[in-house]
Amino acid sequence: MLFYPKHDLKTDCDYIIVLGALVNKNKISKSLQDRLDTCVEYLQEIDKDTVVVVSGGKGRGENITEASAMRDYLVSKGIDKNLILIEDKSTTTKENFDFSKKIIENASHKKIENLNIKVITTDFHTLRSKIISKKSGYKNTTFYTSKSNSRLAILNYTREFFALICNLILGC
């Protein structure tokens, strides 16, 4: 029941954006760990020098920002901290893309539409993320997904369905 299984591994990219997910106080969730492990896999197998933007602010029940937790996890897995940019203000997927766009454009001195961006998220989240990224001006975007927990598939896909409808109809 996967809309977006792992793909586009070998497509070159200028930047990677890892979309945030829940942090329980100071501990990353399984979903977020899976996204980060997918990022580590890409960096180790394809291009260890790709700059990564970790994107996620601080939500309810989180003692640190998702981005800070993500950076710490990647560094603990051997990723060079100098290749990690932090976007720690976002609280929605749209903000993930909008705020990451500013960071990438400032770092690269290029417009986002002229860069190849790889987005790492969970399979159930990819369709909506792809739509939001296009609305935010991303043109050359590929996705590399982590696999969702099959026990939570109905819950995750139902939540995404309603979030997608809200996004498409109400722009939320």
TrEMBL record:
It comes from Intestinibacter bartlettii. PANTHER family: ENVELOPE BIOGENESIS FACTOR ELYC, INNER MEMBRANE PROTEIN, PROBABLE PERMEASE. Residues 14-145 form the DUF218 domain. CDD domains: YdcF-like (cd06259). This is YdcF family protein. Coiled coil: none annotated. InterPro entries: Cell_Envelope_Assoc (IPR051599), DUF218 (IPR003848). Pfam families: DUF218 (PF02698).
